[in-house]
Design goal:
about 325 residues; alpha/beta; Ribosomal Protein S8, Chain: A, domain 1; Rossmann fold; two-stranded antiparallel sheet; 14 helices; about 45% helix; about 15% strand; disordered C terminus
């Protein structure tokens, strides 16, 4: 079954194959992608029904309609027998809201800001629905954002935590990498998981992920979604294009908060491509409800050498001068 883009594959499969698993529970049809095609494995009648539902989903998307999670689930569950529909709806409820009970119970590691700028960052996150945390590596931008999100999740201020990154190294074309989705994502999402594992006990984190309460996914998987009652973090935002940044920011739904973190000095975009982070900061500065916190070498909380290294790279380079001598 041909797909027009990787975005369509992401739409059909869902983050961490969420929608593929739902369709498998509903129809016993396995979905996979290869070389731009969607493969369906199962009994012929079930495959035919799965294709019908996927065609319906793609048809709406190709007409420019933005589809929320609930609408996608409704399309994929359409046309089932009552018993099958009820069984699948139980799975949907488990993913959507079944973890609302443990959200208030999971244990987290307390985190204290280590300098004045970190303290201000957490204060701005608490007060503003959209916050940009920009600056050099090692200043705790991402870790503190994840910490704030986890605390709001446990307190019930938000119902979900969504963390995303642009996967520039692979061009976000994960379908062309070997291995299943989890294996493909791990190298790119490892820093996020390091923070989560440091804040939440392993068993609790696994349970919250399985219930869909905590989601870590590449930026491409955000397209076409509305993220309501969620704390959403975009990490490594300097590697987004202007179009990707616009797409991300417009995912914000009712009751949601967003934190965008990045280091403009570590841009991995192709030459002559303007960073969506720099563009957004320029466009949105001064907007009510949008906060900005800038970090510099004085805020580095890693090894003391890191701050010196950052300053060395910020200073005018002497490499060419030394070579000339």
């Amino acid at each position: 079954m041909p797909l027009r883009s990787h975005d369509e594959a992401a739409l059909v499969l869902g983050p961490y194959d969420r929608f593929a698993k739902l369709l498998r529970q509903a129809l016993d049809v396995e979905l996979s992608t290869h070389s731009g095609n969607l493969r369906l494995k199962g009994i012929e009648d079930d495959i035919h029904e799965a294709r019908r539902r996927i065609d319906h989903l793609l048809g709406k998307s190709r007409k420019g309609r933005e589809l929320g999670v609930r609408e996608i689930e409704k399309i994929l569950l359409d046309g089932q027998s009552k018993s099958a529909r009820e069984a699948s709806q139980e799975a949907v409820l488990a993913m959507r809201s079944g973890a609302k009970r443990p959200v208030a119970r999971f244990r987290i590691r307390p985190v204290e800001p280590r300098n004045e700028n970190q303290r201000r960052y957490l204060d701005v996150i608490e007060k503003r629905p959209l916050v940009f945390g920009n600056g050099v590596a090692g200043t705790g931008k991402t870790y503190l954002a994840v910490s704030a999100a986890v605390h709001m999740l446990r307190s019930g201020e938000v119902r979900r935590l969504v963390i995303t990154r642009p996967v520039v190294e692979a061009g976000e074309h994960l379908g062309f990498l070997p291995g299943d989705l989890q294996a493909k994502l791990n190298p790119y999402m490892r820093p996020i998981y390091d923070a989560l594992h440091d804040l939440i006990e392993h068993d609790d984190l696994v349970r919250l992920e399985e219930a869909g309460v905590i989601e870590v996914a590449p930026l491409a998987y955000m397209r076409g979604r509305t993220l309501s009652n969620a704390f959403v973090i975009l990490d490594e935002a300097q590697n987004t294009t202007i179009g990707q940044m616009k797409m991300f920011l417009t995912r914000m739904g009712e009751g949601s908060r967003m934190v965008v973190t990045g280091d403009p000095s570590q841009n991995d975009l192709p030459p002559n491509t303007r960073s969506g982070l720099l563009d957004a900061v320029q466009r949105l500065r001064g907007f009510e409800g949008v906060g900005f916190v800038e970090f510099n070498a004085n805020d580095v909380v890693r090894h003391p050498l890191v701050a010196q290294i950052v300053r060395a790279y910020q200073a005018p380079s002497r490499v060419k001068e030394d070579a000339a001598e």
